[in-house]
Each structure stands twice: as C-alpha cells, then as structure tokens.
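Listing S7. Sequence submitted for prediction.
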Amino acid sequence: MKTRAAVLRKSPVERPYAHTRPLSIETIDLAPPGPDELLVKIGAAGLCHSDLSVINGDRPRPVPMALGHEAAGTVEAVGSGVRDISPGDRVVMSFMPSCGHCLPCAEGRPALCVPGAEANGKGTLLSGERRLSCGEVTVNHHLGVSGFADYAVVSRHSAVKIEADLPMVEAALFGCAVLTGVGAVVNTCRVRPGESVAVIGLGGVGLAALLGAVAAGAERIVAIDLAEDKLKLARSLGATDTFLAADPDAAENIRQATRGGVDHAIEAAGSVRAFELAYRITRRGGLTVSAGLAHPSSQISIPAVSLVAEERSVRGSYMGSCVPARDIPRFIALYERGRLPVDRLLSSTGPLEEINEAFDLLDQGRVIRHVITF
C-alpha cells in the first residue's frame, strides 16, 4: 500500500527548517505487516528532541529515514502470530521494542533490550526487516515507529494496547514524554512522599517529570530552566520553587533554599552543563539522574571524592526505566483520575505539511509538545 510520510534524506540539516525543508512529505510504499507485526493507522504523533537530534545530526541515523516515534493510532491489520491485539484496537507506540528474551528484558528492564537497541540503530523493525521503500530505495524506520505518516508497520513489541478512550493527541504523549519523564521519577528515582525533587530542563520530558513528582507526593519540587515562561508554567503545574539556570548563583541559591540540596535531581535537558548543575544541587547521600540525551561526544566532569565522601549516586534513565506494557496503562489511569494532567504539555497541533515549521518552534523552545494530527 501507499502512505504519506515525512522523510529525512540527509543529516545534518541547517536551520531554519522552514527554509531548508529537511523533511519532505512523500508518498512511499509500505509493505504489509510480517509475523508479529501490526499495521497501524496513525492518529497523532508528537515532535520530540529525539527527532530533532536526527535532523541536526546530534544522533546520526541511517538515511533516508521516515521520522517520528511518539505516536498513537488504531490497528488496521495484524501479521501472523499476533493473538492479543486485533484490528480496531487503539495502541500507543513505544520507541524501544523489547524482545523479551535478552538479559535486560529477562531482568525486567525492556528499555535496555539488546536486539531492540540494535534494530533502532540500524533503522529496522525488531525483526530486522524494513517495510518502507520508495521505488528501489529502502527507507529506514525511526526507532521502530516512523510515526510521522498516515500508516506505519511496527513490531507487536513496539505497541501497547490501551483501553482508555483518550483523544489521539493526548494518547501520543504517553509514548515518549510521559514515559521518560514520569518514569524517571517513579521508576529510576522511586520518589517517596515528602522527598524533594529538582528538574533541570522544562521541555516535554522535564515537565512530565515535574508532574510525576507532584503525583508521587514530593514535598519540595524545584524547577530550573533558561526561559521564564517555562518557569511560570512549572509553577502552575505544581513546582514549589523556580530558578533561572542562567543565574551564576543558581546552584548556591537552590542549596540554600533546600537546606543543602534535594533528594533527587533530574537532568532533562540533554546538556552537560545541566547535568553538572543537577549534581551540584543534589544533597549528601542524594541521587542525580540524567534523563536527557546529550551529544554522543559530550563528557561530564564531577568531583570524584564526593561520590565516596558524600555517598552520592548517579544514574541514567532511558525511557524512564519503564516497562511500557505496565506503565503506559498506569500513567493513563493517573491522568484519567486527574492526578497526572499531561494534557497541559500540549502546546499546539498541526498538519503533516507544516512539520518543518513546527520543528523550528521546538528547536527555539517555543513549544513544549507540538502534535501532528492525521
């Protein structure tokens, strides 16, 4: 069958994207789903910095590639071997397929699935196959989803069935921003009621982490960003304290305000400076978590002695250390009960034809989440 898709044919691409047009809207070929695969009619797909990092070259991927990984839709057809999902079911896509058999999967850590990571790096589905093409040219999949398209074929292990009757523009957010941000709080940090949390970088992931901290019962929630308008939004979402990251005295002011630092500091900016700030504001015995993907060449520097003398802990958090099949329904249930208002992350929506202009808005920090609707 044919489908429209936003295809990236070279990387990196210079800004502004409204002029350089890195993504071309093309009608390409989509093969039927193979064994353990689904054909999904995409309802909505969110723009994320993980997409942007492929466009600007920060995270090189094979091209041509049909982008988009934060998506939700309705199953149109299933391949052989799929017994627990049927046509008509609504699904949210996960950007890390999990094989269920490698050591990380066996340990309950599907975000670290070895075959899934290999497939994502190569631009294939979990099966190793590519279902997209344009004439004789094979088109790569983005993180097993390629959601900036009318239709997508994905692995069964890249999709989570949802029962809730959510609007697609809201359901899509649970596939990346909510998984990564809320998961960093409840899974990686395991925040308990009464503890203190700081979030550095208030994009979609960072603000989702803030919402997660509120839902977890954190008593002190510190929000830090370079933009005053994002700090204002953070206050409306439950932050008890806000600080401008550009303030040279920010770290000292935060430590004073929190009586020595926070229990958990979450870096969600993908920035070395943001991580180092997070480490500086973590209390003795506290945990510093990095949930933002920095450039592959970036290196961090922290005082080694503090790891021992202050019994510090540092952890990475990929996909919020989530088990998508478990956590996406849990997070949706919290949203439906009014405890996780992720709809507040939605800045705007628009058609596929305006995707390049929308990436300029994301790159300039003018939107939290812009969602493409179909």
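Caption to Listing S7: primary sequence and predicted structure tokens for the chain studied. The radius of gyration is 20 Å. The chain has two domains: 2-162+341-373, 178-317.
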